[in-house]
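Could someone model flavin-adenine dinucleotide with this protein?
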Amino acid sequence: MSESPAKVFARLSTVDRPDVASPRLRRAVVLGGSVAGLLAARVLADHADEVVVLERDEGVDGIDGERRGVPQSLQVHALLPGGRAQIERWFPGFGREAVEQGAVASAAHQSEQWIDDVRAVSAPNVVLLNGSRTFIEALLRRRTLALPNVRLLPTAATGLTFHDARVSGVRLSAADEESVVPAEFVVDAMGRSSRLAAWLERDGWEPPPLQRMQIDVNYATAYFARSQNEPPVAVATSRVSPDYPKKTHAALTAVENGRWMLLQMTYGEDRPPQDWDGFVARCADLPPVFADVAHNQPIGEVHAFRLAEARRRRYDRLNRLPGGLVSVGDAVASFNPIYGQGMSSAALHASCLSEYLCGASDATGVATRFFELQKVVVDAAWDLSTQSDAQRLETGRPPLPTRLQRALVDQVLAAAVVDIPVATAFNEVAFMNAHPSTLAAPSVVLRSVASNVRTRARAARGRLTSEAGTPG
Ligand SMILES: Cc1cc2nc3c(=O)[nH]c(=O)nc-3n(C[C@H](O)[C@H](O)[C@H](O)COP(=O)(O)OP(=O)(O)OC[C@H]3O[C@@H](n4cnc5c(N)ncnc54)[C@H](O)[C@@H]3O)c2cc1C
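Reply:
Sure, complex below.
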């Protein structure tokens, strides 16, 4: 690809809808009716006479509750502004509708971000739409299934059929009457445990190499009732650096149905408490807003979740792949969830699909171009999240280029705590609105260095003043 990743990322982040309705496919089938699958179905609806979404979970129409096929569904989920903008692109009015149904829209002054117990400056771009994952998915499903050429088939896919090196259909579980749904184009959106690689191998195709990164993340999410005496915030995060003595990360978000969701997150063997007393007691170790919320009436149980590794399936590295087949969302890459990138990545994969289909003369050919575009999005999210995991877990001294890159990132991270323009530029990347390389722009780096020099000078002056005031 001759264009820079930053340029491709910027183009994929457009909020303009494409002005084309070609190529035409007779039937496209999406495997998995969750966030990634529903957004892919929306894009395909512009290009196919019929789009069929296969979903193995029954009763996914409810607005609330746990999803068997999505075990993380009850954990805190942040919808990043980059992902929200893409959802709005495909479903205009989505944010307004979400708020009408109870989601909480928050402005910058309603957000608190803490790093190592220091409150960061409030950047103007921390404008969020807060709702539970189940709620967001249910709204997406409603909008997608309202399209006249999209339908949901509540059944599990068990494999693919091929003709002339192209996908020709999807096998259904044996109990169903119809054993194959013919398809010209198939999207794998089966999530992290997608079986597509195994199906390809079974049928004589190359499976994608699997890239793994050990993360050992422990999540515990608790729900509380929102009361009249709420703190004037709608969202808060607290992160700790690897060498900070406290080890609990946390997030808090006001969501639909008058509830708070409060997350405690740790690494390794140190697991957040799963009993109410222990969970509430640990909030005392967090910035004050967390303990304030934990004084409210608890709802239900504390929900725990553990994730051992981040995973990436390298379809972009395959030499041989059947035509008319792509993979999106967690099926391609699932990251350390603390960065909240999953749903937004899925939304940007839908954008890759749109650009690919709009430019393809034959959509049933091998989707090499799609995987090239998707690689830009996955690299951006993967690099951002795995860099700090690698740093946390490494034992030896990393090579010089890694140390230099980290020194630069550290400058930006330190300045983002105190400097609004740097915090704004950093958020644009963390929110998946901009490519990570934008943080290496001289304007951002120089401003960060200058800000850090000022902070250190202030701290040194403070030390001198207090020493001078100390009776000798
Ligand atoms: C603990 C945790 C916290 C997270 N926090 C955030 C966050 O803050 N923000 C964020 O954006 N993301 C977050 N994520 C990631 C987010 O949950 C996913 O990225 C998001 O759900 C989109 O995933 P998906 O649609 O690709 O797959 P999934 O949501 O996993 O859905 C896959 C779907 O495929 C269906 N399926 C599977 N196999 C078959 C089959 N054979 N036939 C038919 N259907 C099938 C399943 O039933 C399911 O509905 C978090 C993840 C975890 C684990």
